[in-house]
Amino acid sequence: MFLCLHNVVFDYQGGRQGQIALNWNERLRIIDSIARAIAFIHGQTPPTEKNMKMNVHGNIKSSNIMINIDLTARLSDYGFVQLADCVEDSESKERTRTNNIYCEDLSQKSDVFNFGLVLLDILAGVQDLSYINCIVKMEEKIKEGESTFFEFPVRGKERKQALKVLAIALASTNSFSETRPSIQQIMLDLSDILNSSK
């Protein structure tokens, strides 16, 4: 049985109506599983012609992430955005891309940006792009515990881990795509976080 991540409740006190409360370790397991799925896609052979990019998902968002009962994640809609966004002009026979609201272009860096948004949703229920700059400005207060950010109780070692995941989310959503980490770098950072929990 799969549940959509968008419908999984993250509020520890009982969550939004119809959703399930998750603790930090469960969230971390889901984050790791999503990152592994993206790394698998990004590891596919790049296209040799100007056809579909099999090494880009193109539409990573909470509503396209399915969570299994063992808290492993599966990505849905892989490649669909390329099919939907490419429209063939019958007269000129040219294919053009329409805009996707979740990314500036179809690339691995846009997948990383969207993954950063998913992380913010998992950490604090933030789904609105306009909040990213506010979070960046409040990052020090969040680190020092002066500002409530996380949607769940987290203390000690778990808080340090959650703050490291927040740092990954903010690096991933940087407005300059060239400064965003690769999914491979994110996997290394997550591996360090997971090892610190043992």
UniProtKB/TrEMBL annotation:
Residues 1-194 form the Protein kinase domain. GO terms for molecular function: ATP binding; protein kinase activity. It comes from the Eukaryota. Pfam families: PK_Tyr_Ser-Thr (PF07714). InterPro entries: Kinase-like_dom_sf, PRK1-6/SRF4-like, Prot_kinase_dom, Ser-Thr/Tyr_kinase_cat_dom. PANTHER family: LEUCINE-RICH REPEAT RECEPTOR-LIKE PROTEIN KINASE PXC1 (PTHR48007), PROTEIN KINASE DOMAIN-CONTAINING PROTEIN (PTHR48007:SF55). This is Protein kinase domain-containing protein.
